[in-house]
Amino acid sequence: MKNYSVIFILALLSSCVSVKKHNAQRDSCIPPELLKEDVDYAYSKLQQMHPQLYWYISKPELDHKFDSLKQTITEPLTPLQFYFKLQPIIAGVREGHLSLRIPRRKFSKKEIKKLEHTKGLFSRFEYYISGNRMYIIQNPDSIENIKPGTELISINNVPVADYITKYRKLISSDGYNDTFQPYFLKDLFFNFYTAENGLSNTAMIETLYHGEKRTYKLSREHKSETDLEKDKEMKKRTLEKKVNDYVASSNSYNRSFKFLDKDSTIAYIKVKSFSREYSDQFYKETFSKIKEAGSSYLIIDVRNNYGGSLHEINNLYSYLADKPFTLIKPSQVTSRDIPLRTNYFRKSSPLEYAFKSIAYPSYFFAQAFSTYKKDGKVFYKMKVDKPTKPNKNAFHGKVYVLINGGSFSASSIITAKLKDDKRATLVGEETGGANDGTVAGFYSYQQLPNSQIKFPIGLLLVQPNINFSDTKKGVSPDISIKESMQDIIDQKDPQLDWIKAEIDKEKQKQK
Fold it and tell me: Superkingdom, according to UniProt (predicted)?
């Protein structure tokens, strides 16, 4: 126990990294020769660990990109400046999960507490991006009475189009997908913006609405006592919040279920994220209700779902299958020692670090024997690449699935499987994630030695158990229907409306 006490104390000390020191490093300039070392380090780690590095780009082309980048580094750069040079090359691999972590400023506990007592500056709006233009489509707090549909032209006199052009280069989907970027960019835009420009208390924005230009000054407002009490209430975890996976920051649920008609013939499940937490209980309760109601139709909505747990989508599929199925093909890794490169102690508190140290031998042996060789390739053992039986409460009626460019990763895996098995009709637009799989699963969290930029690398080639399309694009819908910005503003849903109309037609025929 004395040894574990020492581990605990060392972990506590190591976790108390100076915020000031981190921010000083972030603002320091790094010599070109050291930055070039980081470029080589990043590429060498990709070649060692990424199981499908040249899926969408040839080796000569990627070699050329990295060599050309080094030739452009001729003067010292800060880690942030270096990030904006290197990340477009990483994005050029065309693997949506593969991305450097943007070097952010750290905040002291005092600063964090102060921010928690204020409202966001830009996050109180909802946005829509089309081409190089950004629009405000929701303003729930009626800030400055800005109308939905207002175009955001500039921020502090810098054109928004310039930012979009710059930030678009930092984002890639899987392969040659056409739909992913606008969804992901609108969600990450102000992450990039604040990393570049800092977390300000005010901002001047220029807007355009119905041909009229206006300028507004946005200010970060202090939360009232009522707001703070509401925040506390939202953080409380009731059983309902757990089962439906409540997200306090957005005051919404990741999972929800309802019937869309009075006679309960149409069941509707919306999943915003396959987080796995309490998902088994959610699907058990939901499909029990569907079975009890005798529903004939099921709509599953995975629009704007960036993915998550393979366990959860395998479990969900078991409620849709009428015979045993295998969700994914065996997952390939680059070598037998890859499972041991997953940063076991990452993000551990001092107490967690101490307990993990005790459990490490068991973890080591489990991971050491988690791979096997077949046909000269190395694969990682997973439960979801084994046959699964249908659940006793499996739904046997007609299934529709709503998809769009925000349907990524696990959302694309399950929709590709449903489409290949002809188990569902897909409605909407091409998914953001690839039809034929992706590289993710679990990660090795690398850090570039000189710039100290974090670089997580996915280690598993995860592919649905289907006949591959070889399109190098997303899962295509059976029925293609676009949703316009005006549809969102008017709270119309043409994709869901099409399904409901189709079901009405079927009901009329049956009558």
Answer: Bacteria
CA 53 remoteness from chain centre: 20
DSSP 8-state symbol, 81: H
Is this prediction's pTM over 0.85? yes
Please tell me the total number of residues recorded for the chain in this structure: 511
Task: Give the alpha-carbon dihedral of 342, 346, 352, 357, to 10 degrees.
Answer: 50
> For residue 35, what is the DSSP state?
H
CA–CA separation, 130 and 151 (whole Å)? 11
> What single string gives the DSSP state of each residue in 329-388?
PPEEESSTTGGG-S-TTTT--HHHHHHHHHHHHHHHHHHHTSEEEETTEEEE--GGGS-B
User: What does DSSP assign to residue 274?
Assistant: B
In one letter, which amino acid is 147? K
The answer for residues whose C-beta is within 8 angstroms of residue 186's C-beta and 6 or more apart is 127, 128, 129, 134
Backbone angles phi, psi at 351, to 5 degrees: -65, -45
Q: Do the Cβ atoms of 342 and 307 come closer than 8 Å?
A: no
Domain ends where: 380, 409, 438?
A: 380
Q: What is the pLDDT of residues 416-453, one digit of tens each?
A: 999 999 999 999 999 999 999 999 988 999 999 999 99
Take residue 469 and report the two structure tokens written for it: 């399309």
Residue 182 and residue 270 in one domain = no
User: 90: helix, coil or strand?
Assistant: helix
Report pLDDT digits (tens) over 30-39.
999 999 999 9
Question: Are residues 156 and 286 both part of a single domain?
Answer: no
Domain of residue 355 covers 338-380
Cβ pair 338, 45 in contact under 8 A: no
